[in-house]
Amino acid sequence: MTSAVSESSKTARLVLEDKELELPVVVGSEGEVGIDISSLRSQTGAITLDEAYVNTGSTRSAITFLNGEDGVLRYRGYPIETLAEHCDFLETAYLLIYGELPTSDQAASFREDIRHHTMLHEDMKSFYNGFPRDAHPMGILSSVVGALSTFYQDSMDVHDPDQVEVSIHRLIAKLPTIAAYSHKKSIGQPFVYPKNSLSYCENFLHMMFSTPAGDYEADPDFVEALNLLLIVHADHEQNCSTSTVRMVGSSNANLFASISAGIGALWGPLHGGANEACVNMLEQITRDNGNVQKYVDMAKDKQNNFRLMGFGHRVYKNRDPRATIIKTSCDKLLQKLDLKDPLFEVAQKLEETALRDSYFVERKLYPNVDFYSGVIYRALGIPVQMFTVLFAIGRLPGWIAHWKEMHADGSRINRPRQIYTGPTRRDFVPVDQR
Ligand code: ACO
Question: Whose alpha carbon is nearest atom 41 of ligand 1?
Fold first, then answer.
């Protein structure tokens, strides 16, 4: 394992009018090269312009390595395939947040810390009465997570490691409870309290599906599938929601406020919300007699806003390794349950058709993490509006790890600049003369 970042002896030379600048080159532990432009403005008066941050490295990070050309994803150096096979979600969360896999004592103590905080303050339940019955659970999740900051005013100091630690435990413990309550609210059933004798995933399924009238015993295959899904979603370096968490956290906003903002970013259909949008699309195609060619053609038509949901990725220009893991698990689960989901068949047909089409081949558009995950969630009985909520539960350790790393590195407030394109100075005209 090597993990050094070196200031390479190489430099990049930039010439702007009569000024020539020698810029340091930074090389990451996997050989990624970045040109350090932090002195650019002070030396030349110019800034870089990189809309949508396609070429911008916003930070150095030791958490997740991603190579989109080769389809590689590693958390703290461990391949995602290995972690998905050998770890459970809480071990993976520990790895991301603290940097190393836990010993058995560390894992036991971490699990105990999480168990201790699974319940919500009773007063928080009253918030749920204020939301409309058909409220989207992502809206509820973001609001209630933000509201944790009003209940835990004892842990708001971002520079106090003990306060940060208890906030981390509270968040990981309570997010499944907050999520399951939002589902119960939407179907008019009473909230089910967490049961601390159960594992993290079993407990979530218990809170989702038990009722006071009948206990729910989670099928071990469901628990395994959920565990795997949470692991593959746990981190993905500087994606939109993680960058949001870092951005908000850079102002020294507390962890609850930062995560609440990240949940909002994840909700969008171009990001985590794609899993819900993807299943809605697969349902529509199924109703349309499985006519996948029609939807592939629509996605290619530049006059049409339609896109194949669950397809394409900013970084992966090869198969998304998470999609491969999820597809295998999906296949295994459906076979084991002896379930024939027409959506899985349509999804496979759609994938085959798109990957034969030069439009998708030339643009290197492959199925992403959201393409098959919904089929598994459906098999577990999770309603479609909860899919992105499951993504948020999975992504939480990644968000926390990045928030912590950012503070540990002593980063400054994140504040991009802009190239102003509005009117130059003009004279004010009183309202009666306009
Ligand atoms: N269907 C059809 N065409 C697509 C798709 C798609 N799903 N994705 C990209 N393209 C096309 C674009 O139209 C563009 O074509 P052009 O070069 O002719 O203009 C080209 O491929 C590049 O696409 P961009 O939008 O520039 O790529 P970008 O990196 O900005 O966007 C994104 C990536 C948002 C993921 C995009 O592929 C997309 O919208 N996919 C569908 C939504 C989705 O599945 N999001 C989940 C991503 S994974 C995650 O966030 C967890």
Answer: 309
Looking at the annotation, which residues are catalytic? 313, 370
Rounded to the nearest 5 degrees, what angle is found at the Cα of 417, between the Cα atoms of 414 and 418?
A: 145
> Is ligand 1 within 6 A of the CB of residue 172?
no
Alpha helices in 52-160 (DSSP H): 80-86, 89-98, 104-115, 125-130, 137-151
Three-state SS at 78: strand
C-beta contacts of 9-16 below 8 A and 24+ residues apart: 14/40, 14/44, 16/44, 16/46
Q: What is the pLDDT of residues 363-409, one digit of tens each?
A: 999 999 999 999 999 999 999 999 999 999 999 999 999 999 999 99
Question: How far, in Å, from the CA of 430 to the mean position of ligand 1?
Answer: 46
Mean pLDDT of 6-34: 91
The CA-CA-CA angle for residues 144, 147, 148, to 5°, reads: 95
pTM metric for this prediction: 0.95
Which of 73, 294, 363, 369 has the most ligand 1 atoms within 8 A of CB, as the residue to mutate? Answer: 363
C-alpha 310 to ligand 1 mean position (Å): 9
**Digit-coded pLDDT (tens) for 134-162:** 999 999 999 999 999 999 999 999 999 99
- CB distance 311 to ligand 1 below 6 Å: yes
CA 223/CA 161 separation, integer angstroms: 33
Burial zone of 421 (CB within 10 Å; 0-12 exposed, 13-18 middle, 19+ buried): exposed
Rounded CA separation 57/34 (Å): 7
Residue type (1 letter), 130: G
Are 368 and 310 spatial neighbours (Cβ–Cβ below 8 Å)? yes
**By alpha-carbon position, which residue is closest to atom 36 of ligand 1?**
312
Query: Is the CB of residue 185 below 6 angstroms from any atom belonging to ligand 1?
Result: no
Q: Compute, in angstroms, the gap from residue 138 CA to the centroid of ligand 1.
A: 23
Report the interhelical angle of 370-380 vs 387-408 (nearest 10°).
120
308 lines ligand 1 (CB under 6 A): yes
